[in-house]
Amino acid sequence: MLRVGVIGVGHLGKFHLNNWKEIEGVEIVGFFDSNDETAMAVQEKYGLSLFNSAEELMDACDAVDIVAPTTFHFELCEAAIKKGKHVFVEKPLANTMEEAKQLVKLSKEANLKFQVGHVERFNPAFVAVSGLALKPMFIEVHRLAQFNPRGTDVSVILDLMIHDIDIILNLVQSNVNFISANGVAVMSDTPDIANVRIEFDNGCVANLTSSRISMKKMRKMRLFQKDAYIGIDFLDKKTEIIKLNAPGDKNVFTFDIETNNGKKTIAIANPAVQDCNAIKMELISFKNSIINNTNTAVSAVDGYRAMDVAHQILDKIGKANFN
After folding, report:
1. What sign for the dihedral angle of Cα 42, 47, 48, 49?
2. How far is 289 from 249, CA to CA, in rounded Å?
3. pTM for this entry
């Protein structure tokens, strides 16, 4: 039985608690939250042990799930690693690049399981196409959300866009060559809307737009590659693939077009999307990596790389606004 402790039981932390309760082979030993009012309410609702400090909780468990504000990620992760505990930490990995670099180093030296909560990796719409040969050369992303004061302690880059940065870095598998970006702070002190262009060494280009001041929600990614177009709707959990038809393809719909090279058959497919709880799946993945001694799905290095690109974007936006 894997003994898990949850640190931070605010809005997202409660989702984590609910999901841990449903995962077989896990015992929730308790939780800690520095907000007394929140802590007491959660203790009363869930009937779990409330620990007096994060350190006491760490001593009582095998793994910690850190869902505290980003500013506390480093000190909590560092303490857990030094106590020999496996760590799951919500994105972004840390508050600064230096902190993130130190966590990569510490987790590697400790030889523990360390996973960063980039939950969109487990979105069923992305999972439905992740087994395909995805080699995009152009990527277009729109992630739009309605304004919510919660989460505005960080920019829209670290709040929303970092999800897509992580997915793109995982797909492209090439070094970033150039970044251009612009953003505007409308409702908060940091950018609330941003548009970014990322160019990679292999020639791939990604255009990303993120906003947390939109009238409607949207979380779409479009991938264009030599043989196909792949559309992923993270919000409505839908996928679409349009490509040249190949013998043996099982397609929903095909049609012919005339090209300079003769007639081509175009196939449109909608891969089946299995309904699932992405948060639960990422926590199960973390548990399995500990039990089976396998690599975590989203490593500390992955979290660092996503943060690195996000901070480069923030630097570009800062310089653009200054000029």
Report:
1. positive
2. 35
3. 0.91
Taking the C-alpha atoms of residue 81 and residue 77, their distance in angstroms, rounded to an integer, is 6
Please give the mean pLDDT across all residues of the chain. Answer: 92
Question: Which tokens is 94 given?
Answer: 């840390």
d(CA 4, CA 26): 7
Cα–Cα dist 150/69, whole Å: 11
Q: Whose structure tokens read 């709707």? A: 233
User: From CA 31, how far away is CA 65, in angstroms rounded?
Assistant: 9
Which tokens sit at 250? 């099982």
CATH 3.30.360.10 positions along the chain are 121-275+308-322
Rounded CA-CA distance 189/185 in Å is 6
CATH topology of domain 2-117+279-296: Rossmann fold (3.40.50)
- pLDDT band with cut points at 50, 70 and 90 for residue 253: low
Average pLDDT (274-279) is 93
Three-state secondary structure call for residue 186: coil
- Angle (CA) 323 199 301, round 5°: 100
Domain spanning 121-275+308-322: CATH superfamily: Dihydrodipicolinate Reductase; domain 2 (3.30.360.10)
**pLDDT given for residue 271 in this prediction:** 86
Query: What is the location of CATH 3.40.50.720 in the chain?
Result: 2-117+279-296
| Residue 26 binned pLDDT confidence (cut-offs 50, 70, 90) | very high
What average pLDDT score do residues 214-224 get?
95
d(CA 55, CA 19): 23
